[in-house]
Amino acid sequence: MRVEKLGLRPATLDRLHLAGIVNVKQLTSHSCIEMMQRPDLGPPVVYEIMRRLSKHGIGLPTPYGWCRVPNQRTLEMFRLRFVDGLTLTETGKQFGVSRSRVDQLLHAHFCISTLPAAPQDEEHHKAGA
Fold it and tell me: Residue 122 — very low, low, confident or very high, per pLDDT cuts 50/70/90?
C-alpha cells in the first residue's frame, strides 16, 4: 500500500517522499526511534504517522523487531511527551497515572521512554498532526 492511502497531510507525505519512503512496507521497516531522530521527520511527523497506521491496525517496529499497535491513550501519551514536550510526571498527571507507568507504557509500545522530550514543530502541532 502506498503511503498516500494512509490519509497523511501533504507536508508529511512530502517529508516521507524526500526520505525515500513511498509505501507502507518501507515505512514500517523503520522504528519509531529511527524516524524520530531524523531531522527531516521528527516526533510530530512520527506521531501523525503512528496515528494513521494504528487506524489500519499497523504499528512501527521497535529496535528489537517486535511491534505493538498503540491504542489512543498510548498515542496521546506519546504526543504529550515527545511533541508537546511534557515531562513524564506531567504526562502522567493528564491520565491519573504515575511517572513510572507512563515510562513503562512508552517503553512497551515504542521503546523510547529514555529519549528527551522534543520541542514542538509548530506546523504539525497547529494542524492537529
Answer: very low
pTM: 0.81
Per-residue pLDDT, 52: 95
What's the pLDDT score for residue 116? 52
Nearest to residue 73, comparing CAs of 44, 48, 95? 95
Q: How far apart are CA 101 and CA 96, in angstroms?
A: 10
Whether residue 52 contacts residue 7, with contact meaning beta carbons closer than 8 Å, is answered with yes
Could you tell me the CA-to-CA distances from 73 to 40, 62, 80 in Å, in that order? 26, 19, 11
If you write DSSP's letter for every residue of the chain in order, what string do you get?
-BGGGGT--HHHHHHHHHTT--BHHHHTTS-HHHHHH-TTTHHHHHHHHHHHHHHTT--PBPTTS-B----HHHHHHHIIIIIS---HHHHHHHHT--HHHHHHHHHHHHS-TTSPPPPP-HHHHHTT-
Question: Residue type for 63, please?
Answer: P
Residue in the structure block whose three cell numbers are 507502507: 24
